[in-house]
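Weekly sync, protein design subgroup
Attendees: M.S., D.O., the rotation student, P.L. (late)

Item 1: inverse folding check
M.S. brought a backbone from last month's batch and wanted to see whether the design step gives back something sensible before we order anything. D.O. pointed out we never logged the input encoding, so this time it goes straight into the notes. Structure tokens as presented (638 positions):
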């Protein structure tokens, strides 16, 4: 009876329409025991959903046909579903069908370790269900764990710490964020670029120190981020903010000692103790992290499994502060954790108790429009709403895109002066020419060599110049994608005699690491430049910049890398470039979304160029939201 289904699965797999893994998973389910073709079809769809970052398959989507959600061509789901015989007609009927199957675990039943889990009206792969439950339970428990605060004392400190400026917004959400974070064991501070997340968190650290009294010197504070670059950036900005603050508060608080004691910011992988060839980390509930306060930046990049591992490894008494921009693209892997956690961030939905506490502790009154009946996490979440370094045309464009206002975005793009440019109806050659011009600066410095100067200083300068410009793509394949542009840019750079390729590795080649390698300590997403090894003439090393520190690995030791003149917007998260060029492909439906365009724009600090071919459908892209199915919001009770 399942023959028709398997032959359609084979056909779709061979046509590249279906992941090989999904077919294999469905067959694995079939091998475990009696499962109807309908259940096998659901397992197949669930695996495809996972491949696209969804943590579950809502039964309503299954009943309606998840073809659109999966971005499948019209009719493809119907054809596949047709081979599975008559299917349950609605979510309720699917629930009954799946609930009766011995491959499906339901809460309350004896757990045989079935591969599929049905929770409420969502179907999960067991691993994602376990992670989602773990994240929801841990966050809920932490959000409810608020403690008594000496509000007059906190107010005095906040007035001192925020004394040097007039708030750019009313109420002063930065001050409120400190007060709210102080009382709990979790806080989420979200905001767009330049809204002062790190500025705020530096003051929060000072506040924690101030109220810790005699314990202050013993508080262990750790900084972390999903990538090495983001971690280095976090440390740099916190150090700077603490340094500025120290100058002002003088001896009132030992802030310099605090900065020294914090040590370097680490990647989440390294903080948790990632081990080669294992998904398990050295730190977990049985061997928790040795921290009192953990600050995680760029939290939008943290996927579900990582968040579950992080929360599992955090001691109960420690405080977790998550920083990030909820409107950026979600993590590459499954989940949209920050987005889910920030469900109430825009509206606030603060309870009367939160409003009263926040006013007493900060002196700031949260306007009535932000009051509501949000769950426990909403009470511990603050959105910073005013950007300080992003107010010009780039900021206006980002705001317009984020608000879904295609007309406003169009106006900024067409103004045609200043730092924003739109090359419309363009040809890929124009993106290539821009690339050659943009990369010329660092390649000329490479050609000039270190001269009589210090090799490391030259390397740092070259890397900094390379970091000033980047081409970002929405897709990997095709003339408008990473692969096509990298090839074309390399050819043109060679023709312009800016590079000389003798083989795969050549002087000046920028590379991106595509897989974690614990042996060489390079991680997925790290970007480095290939330059001569000063110790061994004729051999090449790849140099990575982390903050101001330079690290290098012998080029031949790097296995999983790709050339990185152009890279995907996804991989650019956590980085910022002086001039960012965003290349969008022809609209093929589904790929280019509002979050992708917003993330691309917000990578630019001084100059932004958009390049689109005819028929790019920018307005449609801005209207299209990324949707990731997940049960986290419901599980959190918000
Ligand atoms: N209340 C404030 N008063 C004065 N300057 C501020 C204030 N808040 C932020 N700034 C300044 O604005 C700039 C951006 O702040 P910050 O780096 O903390 O933002 P961010 O939200 O962390 O940005 P990103 O998302 O890019 O990391 C910094 O130069 C910071 O010193």
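Designed sequence read out in the meeting:
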């Amino acid at each position: 009876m399942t023959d028709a289904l398997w032959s359609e699965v084979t056909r779709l797999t061979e046509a590249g329409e279906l992941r090989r893994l999904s077919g294999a998973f469905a067959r694995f389910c079939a091998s475990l025991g009696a499962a109807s073709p309908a259940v096998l079809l659901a397992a197949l769809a669930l695996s495809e959903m996972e491949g696209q970052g969804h943590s579950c398959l809502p039964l309503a989507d299954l009943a309606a046909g998840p073809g659109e959600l999966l971005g499948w061509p019209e009719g493809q789901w119907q054809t596949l579903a047709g081979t599975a015989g008559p299917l349950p007609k609605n979510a309720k009927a699917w629930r009954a069908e799946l609930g009766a199957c011995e491959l499906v675990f339901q809460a309350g039943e004896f757990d045989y370790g079935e591969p599929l889990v049905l929770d409420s009206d969502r179907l999960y792969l067991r691993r994602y269900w376990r992670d989602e439950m773990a994240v929801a339970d841990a966050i809920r428990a932490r959000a409810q764990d608020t403690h008594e605060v000496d509000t007059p004392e906190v107010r005095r400190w906040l007035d001192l710490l925020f004394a040097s400026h007039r708030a750019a917004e009313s109420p002063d959400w930065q001050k409120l964020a400190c007060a709210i974070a102080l009382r709990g064991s979790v806080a989420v501070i979200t905001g767009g670029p330049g809204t002062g997340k790190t500025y705020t968190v530096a003051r929060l650290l000072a506040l924690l120190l101030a109220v810790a009294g005699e314990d202050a010197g013993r508080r262990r504070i750790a900084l972390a981020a999903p990538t090495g670059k983001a971690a280095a950036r976090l440390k740099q900005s916190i150090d700077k903010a603490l340094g500025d603050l120290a100058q002002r508060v003088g001896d009132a608080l030992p802030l310099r000692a605090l900065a020294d004691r914090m040590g370097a910011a680490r990647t989440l992988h390294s903080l948790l103790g990632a081990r080669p060839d294992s998904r398990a980390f050295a730190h977990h509930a049985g061997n928790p992290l040795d921290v009192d306060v953990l600050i995680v930046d760029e939290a939008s990049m943290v996927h579900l499994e990582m968040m579950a591992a992080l929360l599992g490894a955090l001691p109960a008494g420690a405080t977790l502060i998550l920083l990030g921009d909820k409107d950026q693209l979600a993590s590459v892997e499954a989940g949209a954790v920050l987005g889910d956690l920030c469900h109430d961030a825009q509206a606030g939905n603060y309870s009367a108790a939160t409003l009263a506490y926040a006013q007493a502790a900060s002196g700031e009154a949260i306007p009535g429009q932000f009051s509501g009946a949000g769950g426990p996490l909403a009470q511990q979440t603050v959105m910073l709403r005013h950007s300080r370094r992003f107010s010009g045309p780039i900021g206006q464009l980002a705001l317009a895109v984020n608000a879904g206002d295609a007309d406003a975005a169009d106006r900024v793009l067409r103004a045609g002066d200043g730092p924003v440019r739109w090359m419309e109806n363009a040809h890929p050659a124009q993106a290539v020419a821009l690339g050659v011009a943009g990369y010329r600066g660092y390649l000329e410095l490479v050609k000039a060599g270190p001269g009589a100067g210090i090799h490391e200083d030259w390397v740092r300068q070259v890397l900094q110049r390379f970091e000033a410009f980047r081409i970002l793509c929405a897709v990997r394949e095709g003339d408008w994608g990473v692969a096509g542009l990298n090839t074309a840019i390399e050819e043109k750079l060679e023709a312009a005699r800016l590079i000389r390729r003798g083989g795969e590795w050549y002087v000046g080649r920028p590379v991106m690491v595509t897989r974690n390698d614990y042996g060489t300590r390079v991680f997925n997403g790290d970007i480095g430049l290939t330059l001569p090894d000063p110790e061994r003439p004729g051999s090449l090393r790849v140099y990575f910049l982390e903050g101001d520190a330079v690290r290098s690995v012998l080029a031949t030791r790097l296995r999983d890398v790709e050339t990185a003149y152009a890279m995907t917007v996804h991989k650019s998260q956590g980085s910022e470039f002086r001039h960012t060029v965003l290349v969008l492909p022809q609209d093929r439906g589904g790929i280019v979304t509002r979050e992708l365009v917003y993330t691309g724009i917000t990578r630019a600090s001084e100059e932004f160029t958009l390049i689109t071919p005819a028929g790019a459908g920018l307005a449609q892209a801005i209207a299209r939201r990324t949707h990731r199915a997940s049960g986290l919001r419901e599980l959190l009770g918000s």
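Discussion: Residues 228-249 form the longest helix (22 residues). The pocket of adenosine-5'-triphosphate is lined by residues 165, 174, 191, 193-199, 237, 388-389 (CB under 6 Å).
Action: P.L. to compare against the previous round before Friday.
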